[in-house]
User: What shape does this take?
Amino acid sequence: MDIRSGQELAWENKLAKRFNTTNIPLEFCLLQAEIAEAFHEWRKGGTNIGQELADAATGLLGLAGMTGIDLQAEIEAKLAKNAAHIYQRQPADALAATTGESG
Assistant: This one.
């Protein structure tokens, strides 16, 4: 499945189940909660990390649908932009792009 198809499926599920399709701030909060659940599962050494990450991905796909964003196109553009960056180690082992635009 490609990202665009996943986004369409997530949107169809939101409509079929009568989930939130209009309250964007709420959807951002729900997405944050899903990421927190994945982190909690990882931190406790649980076996459901994949399921929690899938919940987060599904939430992100739904949010993209709510906002009219073609997430596949955005991810492809971002990956191409990142490929052009050159990264250098900074203090505290952080990486920073030294070429191209930030973001």
About this structure: The longest helix spans residues 24-43. Residues 3-69 form one domain.
